[in-house]
Specification:
The protein is an alpha/beta fold and 282 residues long. It is 17% helix and 26% strand. It contains four helices and 28 strands.
């Protein structure tokens, strides 16, 4: 049986795995599903239509599954979907999706969200990411795998942050950030290759050299982008990393304001039928 402190509130209808721990004054809503090994420390709250995988840990005063702050939210049973092995430190907030954004906010596996991090409605966070203290994601943001975001970074709506990117502290991210790069500033701009992070994850010197060339051609040269793209394809026809960056930039070009997801605004609308289906994904 779950270990539930006498002062905690677990509403009728909540589904808890047998080894879940619910601390003092914690709250679990009636539509919550908690997987194996989850721990709720004192005063943690899980509410809304929230489905959580195994071995997640929720520290005091975090609120997961809260109602969206988007004024266009119309009260539907939109959801939060969380994977496995995540840590949500004190005062972290994750809000449900909205009808206009697809109905789901999603978090993958093995992420760390430090104190005061906020994940707004309809965001999608991949796996193996680190959000430092007081990182703020506006609605509809996508953060791909292995991203590190430093403290007090604010990310505007519909931005995509590519895999293995690093965002420096106290930055304002208003446009998509390409994979494998470091960005910072007001507004944030690409400053170089995330060499240290990539080395820690096993990237070799040949891969890093290709990415360094990509940075020089794409982000620090005034030659037209189409010319530089062709040159990169000629130099590194077999490089998965170069292909990933070029595909990312092609998508950005389809959007507005340097944000690919702006082109998708309103196309993933949630319907009443979605309530009857178990969501897929992370």
């Amino acid at each position: 049986m779950p270990q539930i402190h006498p002062t905690a509130v677990v509403e009728t209808g909540a589904q808890l795995a047998p080894d879940v721990v619910v601390g003092a004054f914690a709250y679990v809503g009636p539509h919550v599903v908690l997987g194996e090994g989850c721990i709720l420390h004192h005063h943690a709250s899980i509410e809304g239509y929230t489905t959580i995988g195994d071995h997640n840990e929720f520290f005091p005063n975090c609120v997961i599954g809260g109602v969206s702050q988007d004024l266009k939210y119309r009260g539907g049973n939109c959801r939060v979907i969380i994977g496995h092995h995540n840590k949500f430190r004190e005062a972290t907030t994750v809000h449900i999706g909205t009808e206009d954004g697809g109905g789901y906010t999603r978090v993958g596996d093995h992420n760390l969200f430090m104190i005061g991090a906020h994940i707004a409605h309809d965001c999608e966070v991949g796996s193996q990411c680190i959000f430092a203290n007081n990182v703020l994601l506006a609605g509809h943001v996508v953060v791909e795998d292995y991203v590190i975001i430093s403290g007090a970074v604010a990310v505007t709506h519909f931005v995509t942050i590519g895999q293995h990117a690093f965002i420096g502290g106290i930055s304002g991210v208003q446009k998509d950030i390409p994979p494998f790069m470091i960005a910072n500033g007001h507004p944030a701009a690409v400053r170089g290759v995330n060499r240290n992070g990539l080395r820690r994850r096993g990237f070799n010197e040949q891969q890093l050299e290709a990415l360094k060339t990509a940075y020089k051609l794409l982000f620090s040269d005034t030659t037209p982008l189409t010319t530089q793209t062709a040159e990169l394809q000629r130099l590194y026809p077999e490089s998965k990393e170069i292909s990933t960056i070029l595909t990312f930039l092609d998508h950005v070009a389809l959007g507005k304001f340097g944000r690919y997801r702006e082109a998708l605004r309103g196309k993933n609308a949630w319907t009443e039928d979605d309530e009857q289906q178990e969501p897929t994904g992370k």
